[in-house]
Amino acid sequence: xxxxxxxxxxxxxxxxxxxxxxxxxxxxxxxxxxxxxxxxxxxxxxxxxxxxxxxxxxxxxxxxxxxxxxxx
Length: 72
Hints:
The protein is mainly beta.
Protein backbone atom coordinates (compact mmCIF):
# COMPACT_ATOMS: atom_id res chain seq x y z
CA UNK A 1 0.00 0.00 0.00
CA UNK A 2 1.41 3.37 -0.92
CA UNK A 3 1.41 6.26 1.56
CA UNK A 4 1.75 9.74 0.08
CA UNK A 5 1.56 13.31 1.28
CA UNK A 6 0.49 16.07 -1.10
CA UNK A 7 2.70 19.11 -0.51
CA UNK A 8 0.71 21.44 -2.76
CA UNK A 9 0.61 22.62 -6.35
CA UNK A 10 3.12 24.87 -8.08
CA UNK A 11 3.12 26.42 -11.53
CA UNK A 12 6.46 27.05 -13.21
CA UNK A 13 7.56 27.50 -16.79
CA UNK A 14 9.41 24.81 -18.70
CA UNK A 15 12.52 27.02 -18.64
CA UNK A 16 12.29 27.29 -14.81
CA UNK A 17 11.87 23.52 -14.57
CA UNK A 18 14.95 22.88 -16.70
CA UNK A 19 16.99 25.34 -14.61
CA UNK A 20 16.07 23.90 -11.19
CA UNK A 21 19.08 23.20 -9.02
CA UNK A 22 19.66 21.81 -5.52
CA UNK A 23 18.66 24.42 -2.95
CA UNK A 24 16.05 26.10 -5.17
CA UNK A 25 12.67 26.74 -3.53
CA UNK A 26 9.29 26.12 -5.16
CA UNK A 27 6.37 28.08 -3.73
CA UNK A 28 3.27 25.90 -3.46
CA UNK A 29 -0.41 26.59 -2.95
CA UNK A 30 -0.19 25.38 0.67
CA UNK A 31 0.74 27.61 3.61
CA UNK A 32 3.30 26.37 6.13
CA UNK A 33 0.54 26.56 8.77
CA UNK A 34 -1.78 24.24 6.80
CA UNK A 35 -2.11 20.58 7.65
CA UNK A 36 -1.31 18.28 4.74
CA UNK A 37 -3.44 15.39 3.49
CA UNK A 38 -1.86 11.96 3.89
CA UNK A 39 -3.20 9.42 1.41
CA UNK A 40 -3.17 5.68 1.97
CA UNK A 41 -3.68 4.14 -1.44
CA UNK A 42 -5.84 6.76 -3.14
CA UNK A 43 -7.83 7.83 -0.06
CA UNK A 44 -7.13 10.71 2.32
CA UNK A 45 -6.83 9.07 5.76
CA UNK A 46 -4.84 11.50 7.91
CA UNK A 47 -3.76 15.11 8.28
CA UNK A 48 -0.22 15.97 9.27
CA UNK A 49 2.43 18.65 9.58
CA UNK A 50 5.87 18.53 7.94
CA UNK A 51 9.02 18.75 10.02
CA UNK A 52 12.40 17.20 10.78
CA UNK A 53 13.06 14.04 12.83
CA UNK A 54 16.58 12.76 13.44
CA UNK A 55 17.88 15.05 10.71
CA UNK A 56 15.44 13.73 8.09
CA UNK A 57 12.33 15.21 6.52
CA UNK A 58 9.28 13.82 8.32
CA UNK A 59 5.53 14.19 8.72
CA UNK A 60 3.76 14.18 12.08
CA UNK A 61 0.24 12.77 11.91
CA UNK A 62 -2.06 15.19 13.74
CA UNK A 63 -5.58 14.04 12.90
CA UNK A 64 -7.51 11.16 11.38
CA UNK A 65 -9.59 12.35 8.45
CA UNK A 66 -13.27 12.50 9.50
CA UNK A 67 -14.30 10.33 6.51
CA UNK A 68 -11.72 7.69 7.51
CA UNK A 69 -13.12 7.54 11.07
CA UNK A 70 -16.59 6.83 9.65
CA UNK A 71 -15.24 3.91 7.63
CA UNK A 72 -15.63 5.58 4.22
